[in-house]
């Protein structure tokens, strides 16, 4: 997001700063590694376009941040250097299957895998990519954790969201709720449209008949 100067329509002698979406293509691994502050919108775009003329892609939306790990000047920081980044995008390589190793914990001063070495300014344009995402939170125990810790505010994760990938919201094709009585044939398509799914979608299993208390 960027700001642009504009005249206030209701008061032309005054200026306002209005936000606008500024598109920027990240070409290298160094540009696509974010130690701290990330752009509000970041997404992976394909070469194909939807019917509106926008590049199909997926947006990464991180919902929790792990915070600071250890100082980068620490002698053992390279063993967990993946924690430097909220998001880092690298070219996919067979020799870089994981961001760390179980052996790093045994000798963090000479780590078997140092994730920081994965980011070496290689181009990521038109390449197979890997998005390394660090998600987490710090929980300090307090009296409200007794007898159990609430989940509100303690969630961890990220969202991989379609971004111009579809021509419209695909959920409009989802079936509505279905109601039928015990007198009706629940295997008939006109009564239960879900019953027709195995016939129209080969990837769906053929579920056995469902019965409950004679229903």
TrEMBL record:
The keyword Metal-binding applies. Keywords: Copper, Metal-binding, Oxidoreductase, TPQ. SUPFAM superfamilies: Amine oxidase catalytic domain. Contains 1 topaquinone per subunit. PANTHER family: COPPER AMINE OXIDASE, RETINA-SPECIFIC COPPER AMINE OXIDASE. Belongs to the copper/topaquinone oxidase family. This is Amine oxidase. The gene is LOC113489214.
């Amino acid at each position: 997001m960027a700001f642009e100067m504009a005249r206030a329509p209701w008061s032309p002698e005054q200026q306002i700063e209005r936000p606008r979406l500024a598109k920027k293509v990240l070409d290298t691994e160094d540009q696509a590694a974010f130690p701290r502050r990330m752009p509000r919108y970041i997404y992976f775009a394909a070469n194909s376009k939807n019917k509106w003329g926008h590049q199909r892609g997926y947006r990464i939306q991180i919902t929790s941040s792990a915070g600071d790990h250890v100082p980068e000047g620490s002698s053992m920081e390279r063993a967990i250097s993946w924690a430097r980044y909220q998001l880092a995008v690298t070219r996919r390589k067979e020799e870089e299957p994981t961001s760390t190793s179980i052996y790093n914990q045994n000798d963090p001063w000479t780590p078997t895998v140092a994730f920081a070495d994965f980011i070496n300014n290689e181009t990521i344009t038109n390449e197979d990519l890997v998005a390394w995402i660090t998600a987490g939170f710090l929980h300090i125990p307090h009296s409200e954790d007794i007898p159990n810790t609430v989940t509100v505010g303690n969630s961890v994760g990220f969202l991989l969201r379609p971004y111009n990938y579809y021509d419209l919201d695909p959920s409009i094709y989802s079936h509505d709720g279905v109601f039928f009585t015990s007198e009706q044939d629940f295997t008939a398509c006109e009564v239960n449209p879900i019953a027709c799914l195995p016939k129209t979608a080969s990837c769906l299993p053929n579920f056995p008949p469902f019965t409950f208390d004679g229903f």
